[in-house]
Amino acid sequence: MMKKALAASVALLMVAPVFAEELVVYSSRADNLLRPVADAYQKKTGVTIKLVNDKAGPLMEKLKAEGSNSPADVLITVDGGNLWQATQMGLLRPINSPVLNGNIPAHLRDPKNQWYGLSVRARTIFYNTAKVKPAELSTYAALADPKWKGRLCLRTSNNVYNQSLVGTMLANQGQAKTMQTVKGWVGNLAAQPFADDTALLEAIGSGRCDVGIANTYYYGRLMDKKPNLPIGIFFADQQGKGTHVNVSGAGVTKHTKKAAQAQKFIEWLSGSEAQNLFADLNHEYPANPKVNPDAKVAKWGKFKQDVINVSVAGSNQKKAVMLMKQAGYK
Ligand code: FE
After folding, report:
1. 195-210 pLDDT, tens per residue?
2. 165: number of CA atoms within 13 Å, CB side?
3. pTM of the complete model
4. What is the 285 CA–ligand 1 centroid distance (Å)?
5. Torsion of CA 114, 297, 282, 153, to 10 degrees
6. Which residues neighbour 239 within 8 Å (Cβ) at sequence distance 6 or greater?
7. What pLDDT digit, counting tens, does each position of 256-295 carry?
8. Cα of 202 to ligand 1 centre, how many Å?
9. Which of 77, 205, 252, 280 could make an S-S bridge to 229, C-beta 3.0–4.6 Å?
10. Ligand 1 mean position, distance from CA 114 (Å)
């Protein structure tokens, strides 16, 4: 009797890990965007993906505080600024993956391979189609021209998205020119900076602002709901460096005990099967250039991306925040 029970429990021990394989993913990406991807992976591989959701800041603090006791195997978050921060906090480990290096372009991943971009969003110019002709638009810097006085709308400077945009502008055009641009923007504002991109786009739609800067997926979401709003999309800086892009991305946590499985999951996310699932639900572009964007997103047109490494958004973040403050950008 005892022997039988022992044999059964030994058998269970041997079998259990196979069935109980689980990866814990800390994610600041909205649950409804990630859940279908996690479910697809589970269906394919039998690996259960446990999602722990929070905003990027608190999530990274939690991971840091937990240290080697953290149950997290993978970190997924949005914006190169946050991903860079995660590397600075020592939360991630380098990944050695020919698959990821083959699927994800160099500018969309950490130069030291600690994280890889999985979806791309452009932060570009939007305009009221009744009041502005696309021929009047060109660059982010040109929105500082007095021509736009009382017509420009921006999101608040405390959000990481414009910090990243200004961070890459600093790298591309230097301190003096960037300061001139940001001061010009502030002088052209039609309204106090907005707390989110959707409110900003709605203000363009209502004619309160003529032009503004926002992420493409907010435009996609809004046009789904209100397709008749007179808002156009314009890809900035096409004659120069290209439109500012950013990513949502993933890395393997420093203290995971399942590094190989965690890497496999991220590799799968970068492949053709998962890329559309990962990007399309949020109206984003697949990071893998071999994968076509969703038809709705493709309809906005092809554009040239600024291929500066997105980690510059992080390494220049402090400087960007200081510059925006000095320029009076709230
Ligand atoms: Fe967002």
Report:
1. 999 999 999 999 999 9
2. 28
3. 0.91
4. 14
5. 90
6. 138, 139
7. 999 999 999 999 999 998 999 999 999 999 999 999 999 9
8. 15
9. 205
10. 22
